[in-house]
Each structure stands twice: as C-alpha cells, then as structure tokens.
Amino acid sequence: MIKYVWKGVKGMKSERIAAIVGAAESELGHLPGRNVLQLQAQAAKRALDDAGFTKDDVDALFTTASWGHFPQLMLGEYLGITPKYTGGTNIGGSSFESHVAHALVGIQAGLFDVALITYGSTNRTSGNRPSAAGLTLSYEEPFGIPSPVGHYAMAAQRHMYEYGTTSEQLAEIAVATRKWAALNEKAFKREPVTIEDVLNSPMIAEPLHLLDCCLITDGGGALVVASAEAAARAKKRPVWILGHAETQTHNTVTHMPDLTVTGAKDTGRRAMEMAGITHDEIDVVQVYDSFTITVLLTLESLGFCKPGEGGDFVSGQRTAPGGEFPLNTSGGGLSYCHPGMFGIFLLIEAVRQLRGECGERQVKDAKISLVNGTGGTLSSTSTVILGRD
Fold first, then answer.
1. 44 near 55, Cβ under 8 Å?
2. 264, 159, 137: which is closest to 208 by C-alpha?
3. What CATH number is given to the structural domain containing 237?
4. Which member of 119, 152, 163, 288 is catalytic?
5. Any domain includes 151
6. Residue 288 falls in the annotated catalytic set
7. Is residue 336 among the annotated active site residues?
C-alpha cells in the first residue's frame, strides 16, 4: 500500500491512507415524483463522474436512511453493485462523517480500495421524517415536548439561563448562513434575511423561531473515498482524510449529560490530535446546523471558543462571507438544503472548498477543513479533518 505522509504541527504525522476523490449532490429542493433510490443513484453517478470512476470501481458501499428496511441491500441492487464490504452505521445526521472514517479504516485494513457513500431523502414531498418511535420517548412527547425542535429549544433555554445568550446572537448565525446561501445557486433559500426577520418569524418552540430551524427538502448526496493507489488515478486532486473521531452520549435529551455540551468536545480534540493540527490551522469549518443553537453548542464544544462565549463569538457576522471565521459556506441546513440528514452535505462542501471549486463563496487558500456532524437530539457527533496537498 502506498503511504503518503502529511506533516502537521509539533512534528506529528498523519499517513495519507485514503482520500475523498468524488463529491456531488442530486437535484435538491422540492422534487415530486422522485424516490430516495433515484436521488441516491443520481448523486452516486455524479460523484463517480467527478472522480473519473465508474460503479465497476466500487468495492464498498455505505449508506443509511430514515426510511424502510435494509437500505444497503436495496441500494446495492438498484445500482447494480455487489460490494466486498457494506457499511450501514446510522447515528443520525453524523452518520456520514462516521462512514468516511470507517471507509478509511477499511482501506487501511486492506478490505477494499474504493468506497461509495450515499444518502437520499424525500422529506419535503413525502414527509418521511425520521421516526420518533421508542419506549424512552414515551416519557417526553406525551407531556408536550415536540421532537426534535423542543429538545433543541431546551438546550437553547439552558444556555441562555447559564450564560446570558440572547435570541439576537442565535439570529446572527441564521443571517450569516443565508449570506453564504445567496452565493450558492443550488441553495433552496437565497433571499436576504436580517436579525429582525429572524426574531419576527413565528415562534416554533421557545426560544427558537422559524428561521432558527433548518429547512425540510428533498435531495441526495454521494462521496467516493479511495485508497492512495486508487486516488492517484482520480480525475481531480485528492482531499485527504487526516483525522477522525466519533462518539455518542445519549439517546433522548432527558438523558443528555449536559444540555450545553455535545460529544464534539471529545471528537474534535481526538480528530485534531490524529491530524496533528491546532484550531488556528483550520481554514474553513462545516458543522451541522439543524438549529442555530446546534451551531453555537458545537463551536463551543469543539473548542473554538470557551463555554458560554459562543454568542459573542458569532456576533458581528463573524461567520458570514468576508468574516474571519468561514462557517457553513454552502448555506448549511438553514438555507441550502436539509433532506432529513445533513451530514453528507457538510462533507461535499468541504471537499469543494479544499479543491477551490466554490466560485463567489470560495475561501481563499483553503487547505484544511474541520467537518462535524451531529445526530439525534445532540446525541452523536463525528468529526473529520480533511486536507489537500
């Protein structure tokens, strides 16, 4: 196996074992008449074309879904792929960051050379949102807490109580993200919004307003992960997987150890240590933005600011285009798309930023990206560090 070595800070080294060589979405938005397999197939074909590969190159298949049974079997049959390895980890929106990590580990073990990771959902047209079934939820939803927004609202209220965080500070995130979306022709919502617009939008679950909440759209995404040998024949420059970590802390929010801290506190540290980088070396950040509070908690947990400082950190449009902290540059789940699980789209945007393919929203000289997925009700996190030559 060819092993390229990337040298990080403090002399630490990360072997270049696997890279993302293809990334693409399907059509996005409101797509009547489409099903999840069609959307995944469209995204997969586009990602394979992006890599310069065909489905015959694929010997590992990773997917998960919020619908049906045995999505891996259905997808393999639909695409005509008989893989050597199948992955179906489902920990919510962070699943795809874990799939990338698991693909690297499988390649490192010599189990396969090329992995295809896909996702598709028709949440907007069919309403097949993730089920809230489970005995533990019977202690929450019957008493009036809506899932999932009520759970995130609890976290927001707690953060406000402990640290004095304001709705205006949360609105900064929604406004900045919409500014990125305005530069992305694929974004579902591109018209400008102001902090006042966010605060005047309908209250969904106090303190979260409508514009604090992610979109509900249709769409699919796909990634191609390849060994160093396979990446050498890809059409575009490889985006190397330099570090990764995952964890889960709870299922239901009533069992969350601390409503203001996510598992990113652990996964961010471990992923950066594996990559041999520090916060100051990260050029662009992609984090799950199911709600504005998700972003605030994640930034604090990842260590970009101290606990309770997230509100000040995002103020003054710091994360908007032209700001000093480029964040969720596609427009995120708040404005670009959100077909049920957003984690794969964070990775797609990170790859494009590191390749320099983002046009007006391109972050200058981006070489390292941190991607953090969040799943469930702040339940799971998976962090991936990506870098280019």
1. yes
2. 159
3. 3.40.47.10
4. 288
5. no
6. yes
7. yes
